[in-house]
């Protein structure tokens, strides 16, 4: 591709202190830490490539005059639901993502959430900070129920890079792994997998790792949650909209489920009145973390390296991690 690419990075602050030097060395690159929706069109104007993580590029924006020079959308993430892929294809805009870069980071964070719900380490730490141990009439505190993972079953919904890594780690704790068939698929259930309903019924812990699609939106609604074992745990490090928030709150409030740990919500950052944020302040069996499972430094550095390689491949007219 002739000439030096003009690139804009719309939400660089989402990658913390990872160096962006390779972008400025290779291309004419404007870096914006944060871009509000009203600023996107103007910042796209005249650019060949846009790099983004969670900024939304819908069909109207891609069809606008502001995007007339746009040739490539480099998504600095695995998920692609913030970009209208059909509109990009119609305009001949190449779209690439970065699969698998955070599998290790998300998998170990998933295990940390499971362990927290199973052992309540954080809760006990807070009791010590509050001075409860000094006041105990016995040598220990037994304020929270805990259980061993060995011999329990972990149902994995979404068996891609992350789901497979979670399964590998979980087996080390003695967990039996149950793998759900692809949600919403019309194909026969593959060997080694089980229908989602059966996984929900048999699992002591359910962990979600599937993408958000029209078929997986509100995948765990009141009906699905009612299928889960009484006292089961639910983990979500995938997408917030996979779960019906109100149905989950009711299941937790009624102790139908023993606990849930969520690293993702339907809106991020959430408004103060988000139902799950409010519920987390009230319920001791709900843990919410701020979409940080992916964020180990090694994963962020790997992600930036992969985005660079995707753009370099594009300049050579090679397809690399292309999704549109």
For the largest beta-sheet, the strand count, sense and barrel status come to: 6 strands, parallel
Strand tally is: 11
CATH superfamily of the largest domain: NAD(P)-binding Rossmann-like Domain
Total domains: 2
Mean pLDDT: 95
Spatial order of the strands forming the largest sheet: 7-6-8-9-10-11
* Poorly predicted tracts of residues: none
Report the β-strand fraction as a percent range. 5-15%
Can you tell me the CATH architecture of the largest domain? 3-Layer(aba) Sandwich
The number of helical elements comes to 12
Over all CA atoms, what is the radius of gyration?
22 Å
Distance between the termini: 19 Å
What is the global morphology? globular
Classification by helices and strands: alpha/beta
CATH topology of the largest domain: Rossmann fold
Topology of this protein?
Elements: E1 6-9, H1 21-26, E2 28-31, H2 40-44, E3 49-52, H3 59-62, E4 72-75, H4 85-91, E5 94-96, H5 103-119, H6 121-129, E6 153-157, H7 161-171, E7 176-179, H8 196-202, E8 205-208, H9 222-227, E9 233-236, H10 245-253, E10 259-262, H11 275-282, E11 286-288, H12 297-315
Parallel strand pairs: 1-2, 1-3, 3-4, 4-5, 6-7, 6-8, 8-9, 9-10, 10-11
């Amino acid at each position: 591709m002739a000439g030096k690419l003009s690139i804009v990075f719309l939400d660089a602050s989402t990658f913390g202190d990872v160096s962006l030097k390779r972008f400025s060395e290779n291309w004419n690159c404007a870096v914006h830490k944060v871009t509000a929706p009203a600023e996107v069109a103007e910042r796209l104007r005249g650019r060949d490539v846009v790099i983004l993580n969670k900024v939304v590029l819908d069909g109207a924006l891609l069809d606008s005059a502001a995007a007339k020079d746009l040739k490539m959308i480099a998504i600095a993430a695995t998920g692609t639901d913030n970009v209208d892929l059909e509109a990009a294809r119609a305009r001949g805009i190449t779209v690439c993502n970065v699969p698998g870069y955070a599998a290790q980071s998300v998998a170990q964070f998933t295990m940390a959430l499971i362990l927290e719900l199973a052992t309540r380490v954080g809760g006990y730490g807070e009791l010590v900070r509050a001075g409860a141990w000094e006041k105990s009439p016995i040598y220990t505190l037994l304020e929270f129920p805990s259980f061993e993972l060995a011999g329990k079953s972990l149902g994995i919904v979404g068996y891609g890079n992350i789901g497979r890594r979670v399964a590998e780690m979980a087996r080390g704790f003695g967990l039996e792994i149950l793998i759900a068939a692809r949600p919403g698929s019309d194909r026969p259930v593959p060997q080694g997998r089980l229908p989602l309903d059966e996984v929900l019924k048999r699992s002591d812990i359910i962990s979600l790792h599937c993408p958000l699609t029209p078929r997986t939106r509100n995948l765990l609604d009141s009906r699905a949650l009612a299928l889960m074992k009484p006292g089961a745990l639910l983990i979500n490090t995938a997408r917030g909209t996979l779960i019906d928030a109100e149905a989950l709150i009711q299941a937790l409030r009624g102790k139908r489920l023993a606990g849930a740990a969520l690293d993702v919500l339907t809106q991020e950052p959430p408004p103060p009145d988000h139902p799950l944020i409010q519920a987390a302040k009230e319920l001791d069996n709900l843990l919410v973390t701020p979409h940080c499972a992916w964020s180990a430094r090694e994963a962020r550095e790997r992600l930036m390296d992969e985005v660079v390689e995707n753009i370099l491949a594009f300049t050579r007219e090679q397809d690399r991690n292309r999704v549109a």
